[in-house]
Amino acid sequence: MCWPGVRQFTVSVMLSVVSCISGAAMAEAQQNSDLAVIVSAKNPVSDITMRELRRIFIGERRALDGQHDVLLMVPPPGTPERDIMLRAIYNMNEADYKNFWLGKKFRGEAGGEPLVVASKQLLNDGVAVMPGAVACIAVQDIRRAAVKILKVNGLLPGQNGYPVH
Amino acid sequence: MTIIVADARTAAQDGVAPSRSDRDTVNSLLQRIEELETTTQDLKRQVTDLQMRQSSAAATPLGTAATATVPDSLPQQAAVQEQLGVDRFGIHLRGFGHVGFSATDERRTHGAYALGDLDLLLTSRISSKAGVLSEILFEPEDAGSFTVDVERFLLQFNQNDSFNVGLGRFHTGIGFYNSYFHHGNYMQTTTDRPLMFAFADDGGILPTGNVGVTVSGKLPSGRLGLAYLAEFGSQDTRRTTFNNTDVDLENGNSTNFGIVSRPQVWPGVQAGFSFYHDSVKPSDLQINENILAAHVVILRQSFEWLNEWLVIRHAPVGSTVLFNTPGFYSQVSYRFGAYRPYFRYQYVNASDNEPVLGDVRRREGPSVGVRYDFHESAAMKLQYDRQFSRNQSAVNGITGQVAFTF
User: Fold this and answer.
1) If you measure CA to CA, which chain B residue comes closest to A108?
2) What is the pLDDT of residues A21-73, one digit of tens each?
3) Among residues A58, B42, B66, B143, which is most buried (max CB within 10 A)?
4) B339-382 tens-digit pLDDT
5) Could you tell me if A28 lies within 8 Å of chain B, comparing CB atoms?
6) Nearest-CA distance from A31 to chain B in Å?
7) Measured between CB atoms, does A116 come within 8 Å of chain B?
8) Orientation angle between helical segments B20-58 and B2-13, nearest 10 degrees
9) End-to-end CA distance of chain A
10) CA distance A23 to chain B (A)
């Protein structure tokens, strides 16, 4: 007589477990695909809008903290971080990105392209010690306490609605 | 556990005979205590080891240890900058070129292949706020010879978003096209520049180059995104007319002021106005030259819509006669993958009696074409033009071109 009840309970438990696992997996996947925007811990800015972030990455805004010129550090071509940056921030493909910066140099609007940094350690060190540095990096690759993750639209990587992913 | 053991031992001392099960319990607890003590000692050893490794890692060169922590001192900053190459102020070189074929149905002309300009763009940072930009043009002449022309040569100081100064030779900021596309044909959608922005040695009607000072920057205007431009200079424009004669315009000192708006709510949209003043002396006659230009453009990844209007006003000194030469063009294109079809209509109308631009007359007509980016650094363009001129029959032309950057 109690068999249907036990089965129902078992099914419920299994569904709960499955939903917990899948929810956790989705959250982890979301966090893994989120790209953190980091600056030096000494930088007074902690929060930025997506619009202002785009203006910084396309070279329209020259200083993040009002004092130091922005030094952009970007992941090398062919990496997942680069793909996320191009899609979420620039809304360009690799060829468009190259032509965009070529045009900026051509018109004398930029001295050079953003700095491509392949070494995660060097990226962390660079952002930590240079007050104007702004970089994109996967959250799990942040290794320095001297860097700070910027909130974008008030959200940190991993939070629902975080736009840089 | 210690309390339990203590209680057990106290009970034994009090003369209460412990049972066999109690003795077993006490023995197992004592054994457990020994195990925990061993584990604690191991953990302490590991903590000591980690502390020692961390302190030695801090003394190793940067980047050699994944968990290295670097003191944020100036020497360390310099070391990181050196590793990143931030302060390596070399010269960066980019080249542009094009080659193509063009033909018209004008009498006594025939189609011909032509090598375009070899355009070298040299840029160099000389400090974090200063740099040099140079554009050197190798223009093909008859019999395979080339002439060298330094089109832009500018020392730039970028103080902040609101104040940038350039000293040297630059392209005049009249309107939009002249200061946006310059010489590299690869950078523009069409095979040629609009007639009103053609360079003076191609029959152009504007003083496209200048030597002097250019100051530009953003204005505090919130979402309007206003920016200003002020230019002061001298130039010596040598114009090749449509009658194939060279005229030295003997320009005076010029001033140019402009204002543009790039509203933040409409990315890629720009509207602006500029006023240019100069004097020219193509013959014995001194002529005051004023140029008013306005533009509204939309430049996005896929969509491009350029609209510009201008009027060139020539007022001979000592005369009440004023010659107005209006012009405009509108160019629209949309990118579908690697293909970008485009359409342009242009119009320039100069009086036959105009003392400087009389050879231009009225010229207008459509251009239609397609640009195919077959490589990320090369594009093929095919363009058809139909041009109407005052007192002349319409001319049809076709141009094929491959433009590239390297």
Assistant:
1) B133
2) 555 554 554 556 789 999 999 899 999 999 999 999 999 888 888 888 899 99
3) A58
4) 999 999 999 999 999 999 988 999 999 999 999 999 999 999 99
5) no
6) 22
7) no
8) 140
9) 52
10) 32
